[in-house]
Amino acid sequence: MYLSLRDRPAARTAPASPEEVRAVKAAKRGRVSSVVITLGVVSMLTDISSESVAAVLPLYLTTALGLSTLAYGFVDGLMQGASALVRIAGGWAADKGDHPKWVAVVGYGLSAVTRGVLLVASSFAAVTAIVAVDRIGKGIRTAPRDAMITASSDPRTLGRSFGVHRTLDTIGAALGPLLAFVVLWLIPDGYQTVFVISFGCAVIGLAALVLLVPDLRPRRAAWLTQHRSREARKLPKCKGCSCDIPGLEPAGRPFSWSFLREPGLRRVFVMAGILALLTVGDGFIYLSLQARDGFATQWFPLLYVGTNVAYMALAIPVGRLADRVGRARVFVWGHAALVVAYVCAGVATASAVTTVAALLLLGLFYAATDGVLAALVGRRAAPNVRAAAIGTAQTVVAVARMASSALFGLLWFTVGRGPAILSVAVLLACAVPVAWYVVRGLDAPVPELVDAGDGR
Amino acid sequence: MRRVQPRVAILVAITVVAVLGMGGYAVAAWRADRAATESAPPVSSTALDAVLDAPHIVFRSTLPGNEYGLVAAVPLDDPGGPRAFTDVACDRVDVAGPAASCLRTIAGIATRWEAEVLDAGWQAVDTWGLPGIPSRTRMSDDGTLVATTSFVTGHSYATVGFSTLTEIHRADGTSLGNVEDYALTVDGEPFTAADRNIWGVTFVGDDEFYATAASQSAGRTWLVRGSLRDRTLTSVREDAECPSISPDGTRVAYKKVVDHAGGQPVWALAVLDLATGAETQLPATRGVDDQAAWLDDDTLLYGLPRADVPGTTDVWAVGTTSDATPAVLIPGAWSPAVVG
Question: Is the ipTM of this complex over 0.95?
Answer without folding.
Answer: no
